Amino acid sequence: MGALTKETKLTLLYIVIAFLFSIALRMIWYYQFSGYEPFIFNSQLMINTNDGYYFAEGARDILSGINQQNDLSPIDSAASRLTAFFATILPFSFESIILFMPVVLSSLIVVPIILIAKNLKNLEMGIIAALLASIANSYYNRTMIGYYDTDMLNIVLPMFLLWSIIWAIKTNEDKYLLITALDILVYRWWYPQSYSLEFAFFGLILFYALVFDRKNLYNYKLLALMMFAMLNLDGFIRFPLVLAAFYISKRFDKYVYHILAASVVLFFASGGFNPIWVQLKGYVFKDALVVGEEGMKLHFYSVMQTIREAGKIPFETFADRISGHVVTFIASVVGFAYLAYRHKIMLFGLPLIGLGFIASVGGLRFTIYAVPVLAFGVAFLITEAARFMPTLRLKFLTMIALTLAILYPNVAHIQDYKVPTVFNVDEVKVLDKLKNIAEREDYVISWWDYGYPIRYYSDVKTLIDGGKHDGDVNFPVSFMLTNPSTVSAKMARLDVEYTEKTFKSAQEQIDKNLTIFSNIEQMTKEYGFNDTNDFLFSLQADMKLPQKSRDVYFFLPLRMLDIYPTVSTFSNINLMNGEMKNQPLFYASKMFKQEKNIVNLGQGVLFDLESATVTLGKNKMPVKRFVQTSYDNSMKFQKNIQLSNPTADINIVYMSSYNTFLVLDEKTYNSLYIQLMVLEEYDKMLFEEVILTPLAKVYKLKI
Ligand code: MG
Fold first, then answer.
1. What is the dihedral of CA 143, 148, 152, 154, to 10 degrees?
2. Which end of the chain is more exposed for a tag (fewer CB within 10 A), N or C?
3. Residue 54 half-sphere exposure toward CB, CA atoms < 13 A
């Protein structure tokens, strides 16, 4: 060992440059919004991804040593643990740590990229690919500052895996056996769904070994160690197994096949194939709507039906997401083919490209997997082009000019990508205040989009959240928010108590191999009905509610107005036969103008003040009520209700302080959300106001 070689120094220099570049570009959002009060809480910018609050809740509970049963807080998740670890050792606030973790961790992507290029003796290709991959659209979008989610390492870890596989195959050095296995252990810890990619790598190496390098024992050692790392056993068991297998295979070549055989047997015995099998089964037996194989076979509305992401993506979007521009994308694909032709070893990157291309059917979120490997493609073309330049100076200039050209669309994208934080500080202040009012075991009911942030800021429980939002759990919450508060209050008590009851009985049910029925189905049966519609109808009459075990709150943010129709869809279904009911009328307009007595609300909706009628497309209908709400100078809520046609079905609400008109049918007008949030109208026997602000209102259930 002596001084670092020139190549090593250059490698380190390139890594540092690319790493700092990746960090600097992620700071653009920070400077765009630093000092912008609505996005700042606890003197730091808030995060901008909903799911981040899930891991933040887990980290918060780890740090405070809270272990609460059935609260869905992910205290065992890798992301929460790593966050808690950073929060313990670093001198920054928790808010700063979750904001900046994606910045630093996702920028590590440049390390395996440059190290792979070093193996191909083309460091320039490495730095160009690293610069591009670290900020290409989809990778940036899902790892930007404040995008605190597992994505921050989800591509970094398989890229390290690719790096160690490439070095293992090329050098046959023992240390890469161990590094590969350890990387799989870490990757699986971080992201349990990683098995599909691990499998793809394993399969590719197996193919390579059998077809091209059959006599090389090293390949089988590699496969055996990978398989041990992939067993469906706890990481603390896999780790010593990997070490033992490494030791034996290093010392005794003659046992390699035995070890490989043992790893395969253990793999199947431990159920390692199960996740794949479950996935295959999912594709074969598609029956998303019906929950349970016995019982009432209720038909719930599937959340997949509302997620747009699962749709088909146009080619241009797809290309932009992977490379920032269609031209760059095409150059990347061509360049990668050429690179793989010149350096066959790069074919080991195919599983990542393959997963990225699944995006064309599986949704945009997969595109990031293809980003780093395809970045090698265009980077290789650039270094090849530079090779033809006669002078060193021209070579250098060519590389710089072309690199800037491919970076430009991505940098422009970053400058325009001004995503907001999940909540505004005024909403967060409400939740923060609620934390001191509600107990940790209390429930706060709201739509699932707000579940994680509610749990994080208010330290309470929720019925639905970003991970728990299937049709059967969404149904009762949708029902509560969109039905009259008299029946919604009962449903709230019922659903909370049945949720807790089900938590307690779930393990027993699973042990006895019994189906766990939805809360609604349990309620229907226990109240003596065999038709859910009859049960729901019975909520209108007096009924005996379950024993109250805790308090229940409703969190009603103004922003739910934007998604009211989606919220209502989940309960606007006949659970007995799956038929959708007529869509309730809900129309909100912020763009309107008045000409004489006609208010034009856009989309062909005209409100005639004089005759108290509303025109919807071709139909002209009488208006039942015209309601105007406002905040007076002392921020006191005011409303004025004019009843014009008692028998009509349509209501107009003008929320003057929000510059918003609502056109609502009678059902929507009477819904809990509109009554409690928009009109502050409620039965004092059922609800009690807790926090009322213009952006969010909290009520406590009194039954
Ligand atoms: Mg909790």
1. -110
2. N
3. 20
> Where does residue 220 rank: exposed (0-12), middle (13-18), buried (19+ CB within 10 A)?
buried
Q: Ligand 1 mean position to 61 CA, how many Å?
A: 7
| HEC profile of 27-44 | HHHHHHHCCCHHHEECCE
Q: Distance from the CA of 460 to the center of ligand 1, in angstroms? A: 5
d(CA 411, CA 424): 27
Distance 462 CA to ligand 1 centre (A): 9
Residue 283 has pLDDT above 70, yes or no: no
Instruction: Please name the residues in contact with 410: beta carbons below 8 A apart, sequence gap of 6 or more.
Output: 132, 135, 136, 137, 140, 324
Domain co-membership, 136 together with 163: yes
Query: What are the residues whose beta carbon lies below 5 Å from ligand 1 (ion)?
Result: 68, 71, 73
Structure tokens given for 258: 């035995």
Residues of the chain with pLDDT > 90, as a percent, come to 81
For CA atoms 448, 449, 450, 455, give the dihedral sign.
positive
Structure confidence at residue 361 (pLDDT): 66
Ligand 1 centroid–CA 73 distance in Å is 6
438 alpha carbon – ligand 1 mean position (Å): 11
pLDDT at 291 over 50: no
Res. 230: pLDDT tops 60: yes
Judged against a pLDDT cut of 80, whether residue 290 lies above it is answered with: no
Q: Which single residue is written with the structure tokens 């197994």? A: 241
Note whether 528 and 381 are same-domain residues: no
Quote the pLDDT of residue 288: 43
pLDDT band at 588 (very low <50, low <70, confident <90, very high): very high
Shared-domain flag, residues 518 and 593: no
Q: What are the CA-CA distances from residue 290 to residues 301, 471, 542, 575 (Å)?
A: 9, 10, 31, 10
How many CB atoms neighbour CB 467 within 10 A?
13
577 belongs to a structural domain: no
Element (H, E) at 500: helix 485-511
| Token pair of 28 as six digits | 């653009």
> 162 in a domain, yes or no?
yes
Answer with the one of 362, 383, 416 that is the final residue of a domain. Answer: 416
Number of domains the chain contains: 3
- Residues 628, 695: one domain? yes
Tens of pLDDT, residues 59-68: 999 999 988 8
Structural domain that includes position 431: 425-561
For the segment 72-122, what is each residue's pLDDT rounded down to a tens digit? 999 999 999 999 999 999 999 999 999 999 999 999 999 999 999 999 999
Q: How far is the CA of 58 from the centre of ligand 1 (A)?
A: 8
pTM of structure = 0.92
- CA 455 to ligand 1 center in whole angstroms: 7
pLDDT at 436 over 90: yes
